[in-house]
Each structure stands twice: as C-alpha cells, then as structure tokens.
Design a protein that fits this description.
The protein is built from three helices and two strands; from the N terminus they run H-E-H-H-E. It is of the alpha+beta class.
C-alpha cells in the first residue's frame, strides 16, 4: 500500500498539503510536540516544523 501511494505524491495526485493542520517555526518545537501529544484535543493530523531557510 505504501509503495502505491508514494508515487502519487510527486505527481500531485495525492493532496498531502491538505493533511497539514499545524505549522511551527523550528524555535517553537516544544509547542509542536505539545500539540502532537494532545492531538485529540488540538485536532492535529500532520504537524510541520519549518526551517528558517525553507
């Protein structure tokens, strides 16, 4: 199953961006971890840590 879906991501046939529910800058990694650990309460699906140079 994983192999079948990973090919869809680069082809933009699987909109993974819509799964991202929270974004944090790297310096707020602790907040990201807290959000992840309380994901039921926060509604977190996918949490992204953003690097300053990205």
């Amino acid at each position: 199953m994983v192999h079948a879906t990973t090919g869809l991501i680069p082809e933009k046939r699987l909109p993974v961006g819509s799964l991202i529910t929270h974004r944090f800058p790297m310096d707020r990694w602790r907040d990201a971890v807290k959000t992840f650990l309380s994901k039921g309460k926060e509604g977190a699906v996918k949490i992204v840590l953003e690097h300053p140079s990205a």
